[in-house]
Design brief:
Elements: E1 2-13, E2 19-30, E3 34-38, H1 45-53, E4 60-65, E5 68-69, E6 77-80, H2 92-96, H3 98-102, H4 107-120, H5 136-149, E7 154-158, H6 166-183, E8 186-191, H7 194-200, E9 203-209, E10 212-219, H8 234-248
């Protein structure tokens, strides 16, 4: 089954001088898949995620989850942002259980779910700490645990590792791959980093900013779990060159 579908989606902003953030975007993300959207800044990647999250509406076209039109936010579609977006006055556990609390889930169940998801991201010993006592990588782990706590069908991830140092970023990439392997949650992940896209995704959708749409689909042939030195292989380097050529307009493009 297809978890997420966008059909000829257009999104415009502004008044008399309207800006087209998305220009006829179509894509399909199957249930349990890990799909990465890669493209330059300003191509509409974050707008696309916000549409699937129900945080904004399309100007034209259709956005579907599980065969139904997306109409507002839902626990089924959890968003992880680049900014940590944690409440500084709440502990790690309290940040993780916020969505459950808003949904009316009882205290005992909230604590149990927090313990489970914090163990998934390696923060089981930090439940009573506050965000200002955590490193950037730990804060992003809290954000991921908060998204997982509501048991979503889809994780929508908006450059979640973009502000982290290289070593922390690599660690969280490996942890996300491991979580996906265990939980089989559908993931739609956006980034401007081609290496990250090829390391994480089963499929890479390439967007450009003129026009703001998906122009190519690249199936990633690497088995999971992926070897630590996969980035040095000929196949990886060739795929990276292919995507760069698409950005430059030097390679054929194939719409989704």
């Amino acid at each position: 089954m297809s978890a997420l579908v966008a059909s000829d989606v257009v999104k415009t902003y502004g008044g008399t001088r309207r800006v087209r953030a998305l220009d006829g975007v179509s894509l399909v993300v199957d249930d349990g898949a890990f799909v990465v959207v890669v493209g330059p800044s300003g191509c509409g990647k974050s707008t696309l995620l916000r549409l699937f999250a129900g945080l904004t509406e399309p100007t034209a076209g259709a956005v579907l989850y599980d065969g139904e039109s997306v109409a507002g936010p839902s626990r089924e579609r959890a968003m992880v942002f680049q900014g940590f977006n944690l409440f500084p006055w709440r502990t790690v556990r309290e940040n993780v259980t916020f969505g459950l609390e808003m949904a009316g889930v009882g205290r005992a169940e909230r604590r149990e779910r927090a313990a489970e998801t914090l163990a998934l991201v390696g923060l089981e010993a930090d439940t009573d700490r506050y965000p200002d006592a955590l490193s950037g990588g730990m804060r992003q782990r809290v954000g991921l645990a908060r998204a997982l706590a509501v048991d979503p069908g889809v994780l929508l991830m908006d450059e979640p590792f973009g502000s982290l140092d290289a070593r922390t970023r690599a660690t969280l990439q490996r942890e996300l791959i491991a979580i996906h392997a265990r939980e089989r949650t559908t993931v739609l992940f956006v980034t401007h980093d081609i290496d990250e896209a090829l390391l994480l995704g089963d499929r890479v959708l390439v967007m450009t900013d003129d026009p703001n749409r998906i122009v190519s689909r690249v199936d990633v042939p690497f088995d999971r779990p992926r070897d630590d030195d996969i980035e040095t292989t000929t196949a990886f380097v060739d795929l990276k060159r292919r995507i760069r050529a698409i950005f430059r307009g030097d390679a054929p493009t194939v719409s989704e």
